[in-house]
């Protein structure tokens, strides 16, 4: 088991940030390798809901363990190379939102891949995906009038 933490500040309110984070149709725009999401059961606002994220032909079943809109979401995910939990908080910071994400991997192979994804900020790394997400939300969020 290994733990990795990433953080960024998004120039948008928590409700907007949370809404984009939980929009399954937008995953391919910011999560590296995601091709589509299927098997949706329940709402992203409810613990116990589930969905499957696809990376090409590799499925990653995901279950929502805890959720408090627009402040927190914790999920369990897993496929052959990366499985574990993601715990994300969305905290207001002035007119922006601080996202803090913690990944806890399960298993030896996941720990190795988690380490690779934790290094640097390249597209596909944990930090790189978070920065891509930040840019996506900021691009979509209207500025002051």
Can you give keywords for this protein?
7-stranded antiparallel sheet; 145 residues; globular; alpha+beta; 41% strand
Describe the 3D structure:
The chain is an alpha+beta fold and 145 residues long. Helix content is 26%, strand content 41%. The chain is built from four helices and seven strands; from the N terminus they run βααββββββαα. The chain has a seven-stranded antiparallel sheet. The chain is globular, with a radius of gyration of 15 Å. It starts with a strand and ends in a 5-residue tail after the last helix.
Could you provide a short overview of the structure?
The chain has 145 residues and is an alpha+beta fold.
Write out the strand line-up for the largest beta sheet, numbering strands in chain order. 1-7-6-5-4-3-2
| SSE series | EHHEEEEEEHH
> Strand portion, in percent?
35-45%
For the largest beta-sheet, the strand count, sense and barrel status come to: 7 strands, antiparallel
Helical amount:
25-40%
End-to-end Cα distance, whole Å, is 47 Å
Q: Structural class per helix/strand content?
A: alpha+beta
- pLDDT averaged residue by residue: 93
The low-pLDDT segments are none
Question: What radius of gyration results from the CA coordinates?
Answer: 15 Å
| Strands, count | 7
- Oligomer type: single chain
Q: Output the number of helix runs.
A: 4
Per the principal axes of the C-alpha atoms, what is the gross shape?
Answer: globular
């Amino acid at each position: 088991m290994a733990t990795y933490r990433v953080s960024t500040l998004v120039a948008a309110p928590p409700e907007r940030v949370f809404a984009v984070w939980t929009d399954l149709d937008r995953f391919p725009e910011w999560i590296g390798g995601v091709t589509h999401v299927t098997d949706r059961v329940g709402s992203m606002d409810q613990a116990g809901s589930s969905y499957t994220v696809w990376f090409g032909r590799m499925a990653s079943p995901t279950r929502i363990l805890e959720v408090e809109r627009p402040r927190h979401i914790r999920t369990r995910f897993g496929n052959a190379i990366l499985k574990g939990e993601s715990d994300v908080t969305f905290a207001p910071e002035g007119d922006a939102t601080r996202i803090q994400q913690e990944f806890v991997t399960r298993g030896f192979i996941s720990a190795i891949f988690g380490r690779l994804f934790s290094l640097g900020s390249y597209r596909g790394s944990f930090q790189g995906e978070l920065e891509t997400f930040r840019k996506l939300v900021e691009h979509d969020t209207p500025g002051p009038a």
